[in-house]
């Protein structure tokens, strides 16, 4: 086999197999994209996304409720103290 | 009983296909690189005579693939695997054109082409999964 033949066969076969690979690569990419689309439009995935949103909203609501409970507890404590002093005043006034 | 055998066989085949499609391909890449680096040049030199351009390319591609596996760069590994697949196809072609495939042991080159293609496919799938 001459050098030219050898070089031509080598380059030709490599180019041919690269072409064949490009075809398979395109098919693989297409399949991967289809799989991704299927996954995005899947009912289970949509349900999971809905659940995620709900959990996020509920977490925010829980934090707000906690803050409000803290505020109300403080107010109740203040009112209890005030009530105690008023009760004492009433007792003093009654004795007079 | 027959249904059970059928189900088990189906499970095993599915598992084999999964392993073929998704298993880690580095050991295969290294083996293929070593074949291109050592076995293929020696075998072709002995059986087909000196084909310097092609045999130097074999050695080069073997070294390149080993380097890519060592680096762990996925893009580089895909490139090297394309070259390796091309060169295994070339080896097969060289044999077919010159002496043919006279003995069953020569059909092993088909296995190597198939293995190189499988390795390349696995790598590409990994690349697509990683979105690189």
Gross morphology of chain A: rod-shaped
Strand residues, percent of chain B: under 5%
Number of strands of chain A: 0
Counted up, domains of chain B total 1
- Total DSSP E strands of chain B: 0
- Average pLDDT number of chain B: 89
Tell me the number of helical segments of chain B per DSSP (H or I, 4 or more residues long): 5
**Overall number of structural domains of chain A:** 2
Helical fraction of chain B equals: over 70%
Question: Pairing-aware structural class of the strands and helices of chain A?
Answer: mainly alpha
Q: Rg of chain B from C-alpha positions?
A: 17 Å
Helix content of chain A: over 70%
Cα distance spanning the termini of chain B? 47 Å
Give average pLDDT of chain A, whole number: 90
Number of helices of chain A: 2
Structural class of chain B: mainly alpha
Short structural summary:
The complex is a heterodimer of chains A (96) and B (132). With 96 residues, chain A is mainly α.
